[in-house]
Specification:
It is an enzyme of class 1 (oxidoreductase). Its EC number is 1.1.1.25. InterPro entries: Aminoacid_DH-like_N_sf, NAD(P)-bd_dom_sf, SDH_C, Shikimate_DH-bd_N, Shikimate_DH_fam. The chain contains 11 helices and 12 strands. It has 276 residues and is α/β, with parallel strands linked by helices. Helix 1 packs across helix 10, helix 5 packs across helix 6 and helix 8 packs parallel to helix 9. The termini are far apart.
């Protein structure tokens, strides 16, 4: 059986390491393989048409998450809420879409002891911000502010909040300091984009989740840790969303999360050493 991650750029995706470790731990490495393919939106449907019965499923990263949902025959609630999917499972000739990012964020926060925020500020206005809002609603949050460079371009996140059942306020990222009286600050910005606000966030007393996992720690994560805050990095989210994908694609009841964690951490350490 085959599975793979698709996206652009996808060269540095950690998914092959995580899924490969799961296959090894489950004793199916000789029967299952997990690849990596560079693919943009216009290439997704041709790729899907070329997937034969040996294909179990795909992990989708940017810019394919909306296209994946559109290409699916059915989708889970999280995909509909967010308006994007990061997983396609092939079953009986049908494409089933899932959003395991929502699950991954929730599990990462629970694991770190930050799984019950009532209020939150989400930095960024893209698909990952929408997944964060959906995850926060599942964790019991009642107030969420989404801060984007251009709030008008984050209307999709507000709509995702409405579909998920939580009201979302939009505000300019430049006004972040006015919105830090919260339980959790969730950063969904690219690496380095949240650096100017690291000290202010650390001083707020909020727990911090930063979707970036490499290089780690980010300025946001480091400042929060030095201030004694609870800090959750993006690797934990990536790990748990991948574990959910393994379960969906292989049908196993429980993915070998700890084996996947060790493999991922070892690979990140190797990459960090190469940069030094």
């Amino acid at each position: 059986m085959r599975a793979a991650v698709l996206g652009s750029p996808v060269e540095h995706s950690l998914s092959p390491v995580l899924h490969g470790a799961a296959y090894e731990a489950l004793g199916i490495a000789g029967e299952w393989s997990y690849g990596r393919y560079e693919c943009r939106e216009d290439g997704l449907l041709p790729f899907l048409r070329g997937c034969g019965p040996e294909w179990a499923g795909l992990s989708l990263t940017m810019p394919l998450k909306k296209a994946a949902l559109e290409a699916a025959d059915t989708a889970d609630d999280a995909s509909h809420e967010v308006g994007a999917s990061n997983t396609l499972v092939f079953r009986e000739g049908r494409r089933l879409a899932y959003n395991t990012d929502v699950y991954g964020i929730g599990e990462a926060l629970r694991e770190a002891g930050a799984g019950a925020p009532r209020t939150a500020a989400v930095l960024g206005g893209g698909a990952t911000a929408a997944s964060a809002v959906a995850a926060l609603r599942r964790l019991g949050a009642v107030e969420v502010t989404v801060l984007a460079r251009d709030p008008a371009r984050a209307e999709g996140v507000r709509a995702a909040g409405e579909r998920a059942g939580i009201a979302v306020e939009l505000a300019p990222l430049a006004d972040l300091k006015r919105h830090l009286d919260v339980d959790l600050v969730a950063g969904t910005l690219p690496s380095g984009a949240a650096d100017p606000w690291a000290d202010a966030v650390a001083a707020s007393g909020a727990a911090v989740f930063d979707v970036v996992y490499s290089p780690w720690p980010t300025a946001l994560g480091r400042a929060a840790a030095e201030a004694g805050r609870t800090v959750v990095g993006g690797f934990a989210m990536l790990l748990h969303q991948a574990a959910a994908q393994v379960e969906l694609m292989t049908g196993v009841e429980r993915a070998p999360v700890e084996r996947m964690r060790r493999a991922g951490e070892a690979e990140l350490a190797r990459r960090a050493a190469e940069r030094e």
